# Entry
Amino acid sequence: MDNVTAVDHAEYEVEDYTGPAGTTAGRLGVWILISSEITIFAGLLGSYILFRLFHPEWAEESAHLNIVLGTVNTMLLLTSNFFMMKASTAVDQGDQKKSAKLMLITVALGLAFLVVKGFEYAAEFSHGEFPSKNTFWSFYFLLTGLHGTHILGGLVAITILWAKAKNNALGELKGRVALTGLYWSFVEVVWVFLFPLLYLLREGGAK
Amino acid sequence: MSQEHHQSFLTKYIFSTDHKMVAKQFLLLALAMAVFGGFYAFLIRWELAYPNQPAPFFGVVTPDKYNVIITLHGTIMLFFVGMPLLNAFPSNFLVPLMIGARDMAFPRLNMASFWMTFVAAILLISSFFVPGGPVAGGWTGYAPLSASSEFTGVKAGAVLWILSLALIFIASSLGGINYLVTVVTMRAKGMTYSRVPLTVWFLLAAAMTFFLAVGPILAGAFMLLMDNVFGTGFFLPGKGGEPLLWQHLFWFFGHPEVYVLFFPTLGFVLDISAVFARKPVFGQKLIIGSTVVAIALSFIVWAHHMFQTGMNPTLVTPFAITTILISVPFAIIYICMFLTIHNGSISLEPPMLWALGFLATFLVGGLTGIFLGAAGADIYLHGTYFVIAHFHYTMFPSVFFGGYAAINYWYPKMFGRMLNKTAATIHFVLTFIFFNCTFWPLFIVGMGGMVRRIADPSFYPQFSPFVHLNIFATISAMCLIATQTIFLWNFFSSMKNGKKAELNPYQANTLEWLAQSPPPHGNWGPKLPVVTSGPYEYSEPNKTEDWHTQAPSYKGEASHG
# Structure
């Protein structure tokens, strides 16, 4: 159906569009998407930080978070990002099969992140730490939950690309690997903010 | 070559990725939702003039229904009429045509944006059919009213309202990304930024402002959703939350949002003024520069909506200063608009009438904004009908005068036929009169101290001096609403019976007038137009014609095949 509805750019002979050199529509689009996403997380993190300043007692709640699992998850995400970048390079070099393998590792690491997060949630629930317990936990579950949703979205996108790449069938989707990698980096950077603000800030501030 | 694709009804009219069809879908959605919004406006005015008497087509507007109605009137008019009518519809229709592209950069994202908006509208309307009815906490959704069902008795309705808004915000940001990417990467050869018409500039300004401002309100929406669904207390003081945080998140978005609904109209009015005054726009670069300043300032004025909340007076002063400062760039743009039509050879075609009507009415809204930006006056006026009058003197001209200007001006390009000029002129004159008769009295009523957000003014004896003004405003409002049927009739009947439109009925320079009316799928012939001049080169000395198109070498469909 696609080839009927979409404007078939190939059917016209000359397309002289003026854009900045090296900027593709997709790349610009992803960057703008990220800029918009930053303001979402900025709104949440800004609210959290303001609350945190006025609630030194949240340090005790924060101490209930599992810092070991949090660290493991940070490592998983950073490593997965490394493999995604490698996958993008592999596509640029024309090696889709290699890229598929690297993307598979990325997906596995991303899934591992979610599994670890799931264990953390389960442990927290079993201690009665629900979103409604107090505002610290509300923020914790909202921030990590929203971030987890972004991880999930990224994993779906990477899985689709992997399914194509393993059959050498990326075709026009080649450029998407780098773009998805860009988005994946953004999701990782969000975690780099969440981890210290939620897990590591255990001192009470003004005592 | 196969420009005429074989498309089924479904792919051509429903799941279309053609930017022009998506634009028409947004336009129809906006008009349909405006019927709801207008009906609620009627009910509000009815209750204020004839409290506790049954309203025609509805019955008695009880206080709880009144709360629902004002909430939905605001939500629908701003997000489901204003944004589709001023952002999505013109951006989709005009951006590719005006920059000489065949379609948007991401046509399928465009389709998704419309259908998400459509689902959002359905979600909002479906809240009528859930227990507890639709949300009743005001269109600003102030916490804690919106955060817990114990205050308004609305639970499912509030959740649906939040989901609906979150969805339309995401849809509009995706649309905005599309418009911006399209302009940056898909301008035709020779279409340098200084040759891009101001309509496109302002549509971009609106899109950028929107997707940079929308994040915090989405964050707030997620928090509000958690408060309603998971029993958290982000905004509930009883649970350790902070209701004022919602106001900060809301207005950080809310103030830029009013510019989102204002910028496109500035673009339409400037372009239309140039065409119907046969003069170049005065100070094109100055206008763009002022807009950039206005966007930057729009992000640091939000607390002027909150002067009454007991915020720290040390903070009030800087926000009052930025608020009054922001009128400077807008004043510059306004003066440029006046200088554009100054000494022009003006022809009072319907689009020009709407543009002039906008200039006259928005001026009142803009100037009364300065009263409210000054914290001292605001603390007295904020809770009164003065704010309602000010708000409607800014938003009605932006959304409706601007929207009607755009529809009147681009109708021939959209549907290939002309609107009935007599009907369009009558529609303008009556709308202009009744709009002023509706909202001008509210300034007086507000200055006199009548407070807003109350259902039954007869309950308060101190408001009895305003009864006659309220009845006058209500009758005017009913006439204003009735007048809009002239437009609806003209809009729909001219599609079939209107005079066939020429390619370029107004002898305008910009690219969209080179395409067929209506433009085919793909917009242009085998070759794209090549742009050689700016959009506003009207009445140049030493030339026989007072206009020349931006792409004189474009052959159109004639050389096709």
